[in-house]
Specification:
It is a single chain. The protein is an alpha/beta fold and 307 residues long. The protein folds into 2 domains: 36-88 and 195-307, Rossmann fold; 90-188, Adenine-specific Methyltransferase, domain 2, CATH 1.10.1020. It is 35% helix and 13% strand. It contains 10 helices and 7 strands. Helix 4 (90-101) crosses helix 5 (103-116) and helix 4 (90-101) packs across helix 7 (135-148). The longest helix has 17 residues, at 228-244.
Amino acid sequence: MTPRPPKIHAPLEYEFDEVLEAIADEFKPGIKSATARPFVKWAGGKRSIVPELLARMPETYKTYCELFLGGAALYYAVRPQQSYLSDINFPLVLTYLAVRDKVDELIAELKIHATKHNKDYYYKQRIRLSQEHTASKIGALLIYLNKSCYNGLYRVNKSGEYNVPMGSYTDPAILDEENLRAASQALKGAEIHQHPFSQAPIREGNFYYLDPPYHKTFSSYDGSGFGDKDHQGLAQFCKRLDTAGAHFMLSNSDTPFIRKLYAGYNIEQVQAGRFVSCKGTGRGKETELIIRNYHGRRESPADGQSA
């Protein structure tokens, strides 16, 4: 019987330690298999209309850019290969950075908050939010306050101090470790920045999703508000995107002011659920607009692949 010739494999292009680390990550429980979702509740969150947004995304684009980050529901649904994420809210951006880069430290802090949670503790931590300097501690504080405050609202006074009262939850879901780890993986490789929308780089072929504080609604997320002049500035920014050959999709409330600002673009109505409001009676279905500088609908959900 003729012996079988030995099978020769091509050499790996990785170091042995890198291969071991990849194998360990592959079998680490609760990360690769989990689907990430927003880890904070945010006014104007898009979870209820993500299918509508996905259906209206461009077929191809270079970099996914989201400039009013909030809960990032669309980002998690798309999972783009290249992304630029930003928000003007400094504690929120630090929280995203902590989830991306320091998730173990953040989870350890959240475990402490979950154990000590009561009314007196809540109000002491509310003061700490503007005093801490470590991203993981700020991130854990923001998530803790967001999960245990009234209606999941983020609101600050003119001095930038968080001032939402505690909610009446009997057992708030302060720590969701599995989702935080899934979100951390989903954010790996994403550029995350803190600045106003107007400072974002404009590039031909990029896709920009814009979800500002809605016109004539609550907007005290960073102490400066978002009024008519800000909406006009955003419309001018969208004009610059259009001129540069970028794709943009914008969500906003259905008001004559907004319709006039974006006259000439593709404007569609959708029904969105509202679960975060400064008033408990402010929840429910609302008509809002999706505005784009391109036409067409996808036949299947977005796959998150960049062109």
